[in-house]
Amino acid sequence: MPLIPKSHPRAKSLQIREKLVEGFDHGLVAKEGLMAHGRGEAFDYLLGEKTSRAAKNAIKAAAITLLSAKSPVISVNGNIATLCPKEIVQLAKTTNAKIEVNLFYTNKKRKNKIIKILKKYGAVEVLGINPKKARQVSGLYSARRVVDKEGIFQADVVLVPLEDGDRTLALKKNGKKVITFDLNPLSRTSQTADITIVDNVIRGMKELLRVSNNFSKKKMNNKLKFNNKKNLANTILEIKNNLSRRLPNA
Ligand code: PTJ
After folding, report:
1. Span 15-73, pLDDT tens digits
2. Is the CB of 81 under 6 A from ligand 1?
3. Global pTM?
4. What is the whole-number distance in angstroms between the Cα of residue 158 and the centre of ligand 1?
């Protein structure tokens, strides 16, 4: 990793970028994953690179939903496996969720590398690799349609960080509750999911793990009051306020 001086005003953001580049060099991240990250960075900048109040609200809703699910599954792609493998494995343990590798730009070699890194961080089983257990999500035409019969296929709640809008919609049409992380509050995924956490997974996944750990020790109340559209509108207002504060004095 190139030396990024700690004093650099954008050191954190540059370190995350380098993590992705390393993930690409190690065969975990798709080329397109680097571009997706760049898009995310731009939105993170507009959000002030911090977990907003609306994101905290969505994280709370996500933790409750995962903990009260019958069969939750965490879907992992190249970017997520690179940015937060440890948190994914710990979150799966806390919420009793299965982990499934599911790629947009599918590739067996990359899947195996992703599984290896998750196992390095303590995952016992990672689904999504056995062709005998492969099933298709109806109404979906990308490689992401192929899912594991013991994983996403039978799940009631699916956490799909950095997702594409098509799969979110298809999963919902198949009766699943969809939780996503997406820095772009305007994306189709953000607008379609049941719970959208508009935050950088680097920060948000840690917070989701922390909140889930706290809730797992309490008795869960299933009656969750959360309005995703309203929460997204609040996120956009937060961005607008951030922008207004930065208006140059002309
Ligand atoms: O590993 P694969 O083959 O499954 O491919 C993964 C990518 C990410 C390439 C694939 O899912 C893809 O093409 O995604 P999109 O459609 O480009 O969407 C990515 C979304 O994630 C965009 O809306 C970005 O703003 C958002 N995003 C990028 N980086 C982050 C992020 N959201 C949260 N945290 C990030 N670090």
Report:
1. 999 999 999 999 999 999 999 999 999 999 999 999 999 999 999 999 999 999 999 99
2. no
3. 0.95
4. 16
pLDDT for 116-135, tens place per residue?
999 999 999 999 999 999 99
Ligand 1 pocket test: pick from 31, 77, 79 the residue with the most ligand atoms within 8 Å of its Cβ. 79
First vs last C-alpha separation in the chain: 40
The residues facing 180 across adjacent strands are: 196
Phi, psi of 157 (to 5 degrees): -130, 130
Chain centre distance of CA 122: 19
Which residue has the CA at smallest separation from atom 24 of ligand 1?
Answer: 40
Give 250 Cα–ligand 1 centroid separation in angstroms: 36
72 token code pair: 């939750």
CA of 234 to the centre of ligand 1 (A): 22
Distance in angstroms (rounded) separating the CA atoms of residues 184 and 187: 6
For the Cβ of 125 lying below 6 angstroms from any atom of ligand 1, the answer is no
